[in-house]
Fold:
Amino acid sequence: MTTQSTTAQPYLVVEDLKVRFTTEDGVVRAVDGVSFELPRGRTLGIVGESGSGKSVTSMAVMGLHARGKRTEIAGKILVNGKNIVTMTDEETRKMRGNDMAMVFQDPLSALHPFYTIGRQITTAYKVHHPRASKEDARKRAIEMLDRVGIPEPHRRVDQYPHEFSGGMRQRAMIAMALVNNPALLIADEPTTALDVTVQAQILDLLTDLQKEFNSAIIMITHDLGVISQIADEVLVMYAGRVAEHGSIEQVMRSAQHPYAWGLLESIPSLHGDPEEDLKPIKGNPPSLINVPSGCAFHPRCPYRMMNPGPCDLEVPQLLAISQPGHSVACHLPEDRRVAIYTNEVSEVGVAQ
Amino acid sequence: MLRFIIKRVLAALLTLVAIDVITFVMFFAIPSSPAEANCGKNCTPETIARVNHYLGVDRPFMVQFAEFNRGIFLGRDVDGGRVLNGKPVIDHCHIPCLGYSFKTQEQVTDVIGRALPVTTSIVIGAAVLWLVTGVGLGVYSALHRGKFGDKFAIGVSLVGTSMPVYFFALLLLSIFVFSTGLLPYPQYTSIATNPAKWALALILPWIALTFVQAAGYARYSRSQMLETLSEDYIRTARAIGLPARTVHLRHALRAAITPVITLFGLDLGAFLGGVAITETIFGMHGMGWASVQAASDLNLPVIMATVLIASVFVVIMNVIVDVLYAFIDPRVKLS
Structure:
């Protein structure tokens, strides 16, 4: 997969990323060996349940983890060729908001309640443009608000977050993230707090902006519907590891990992039998302090192979399968996975 | 905005009227006889009756109440029963007349006029000190959570909150005045007469109040700050690349300090009415001291006055805090 020769390096390269937190109860292995690449102009969707490590990964890319005795980050995160992991805090701070920016889940709590929208956007602009005048920064803020589709930006710029509606707030948040033209935008469940119609508008906006600025986007979500609308590639994460990685087509139409099947099956379908119950994934996400041995998913996996192993003994490697660009971490033989998918999973509704 | 302020002030006035009535009822309806308390060894019923008439407490309750309140707004003439050259002496009690001290026969406003500057000197000076040290310590602790500095500050403030002010005040006196003689025994001097002496006398009361109060403020602002630091908008502030200092002092402190300011306003109102223990220990004749004296002498007009003035402070500070809050927090709607 990582056979680069003379081709330009992708804007973001994450290699064998490990993030561990030491707590009183033990070591939390939040991210355990995640690798992916993302060139400009492409969107990577990261899916997984809460605690799968998707947010921790994105925070690590932003350099937002407070480093110290309790937090250990290993591996490589190359943003535009510069390694975030080995940088000083001051160096990452200068890149934050400038080279990479982030949009958060709940825009009401993610915006400061005591400052106007305009002030928050100009602050974001002036951190990285210290020589910009007040008027320039304000003009830029209004321009950005206008760009993300906020009506009457001249008036809106002086309003407080609580005077905006949910969707408008998220637009303002996006305007704030994009004010410095970052090449990488990380959106952490940006539509979860919004209702469905607004959700679609925000996703459209992100797609438009991506075309305009040629930015790389990481879309973190647990919603496969959102992923299927916006992503080019999907990374399915489970217990801090990558379970499956492939193009949107590959993962949505020929998923190979039992966990990905579980996610697909738990989506209600418009075409399915309305009387039929959804099939949730049984059990709970594992504790990241005591991750199950072998494949972390094996206690919940209906197809596990045990007595003797290997599912409870060996951690499955993320291996490329016959389709190029598609890789899966599962001990099941590929022909068996294809058979299970075609016979059992593809029948069930998938977001079209 | 103006409407909000007017409404708030009207409500405050109503509160004051209620306090006026209740205090009056409380002190005049209880079976106490200042005449008996003050008439000495050879007390006869005639003396008591004469003193009661002289003090004006033999009149009906409603008359006394109306008289008292008329005095505050209009002033009044008081027939003290004294006779000079065959004519009764009428004393004029100026606006705002709060009556005459049963004990010293002077106008209560004069008593207050002496006591109030003492209390305001102690309280305002100490308030500035405790706000700055308390919030400073709390913010420092929050930003160094779990480290030595935090644990030390929390330990000190635990001592501060659990130590009664009279103990700490006596400790200060015994260290700085009686043992080492570093400071003279506090004697209040007006700031207008001699600012240096004024400050010198107030150092110990300031330290005493600051220590006890700052401890609480440190704990409160620490917890407010920690709560704010875990807010999403602080993460946003870091995500846009703001330096840590700006994130902490502009974004976190701005939100964390708001409830602290409210508490401060209310505390200030309560303290301006008199800090009896501190004043008494340091021999400062302020409002608290005056009210303790008046209570033990059954000096009703002075008691009445100190209670009323204390409640005026509390009510005024409440209004100020409300209005201020609307300025600090844009989410508070003023209508």
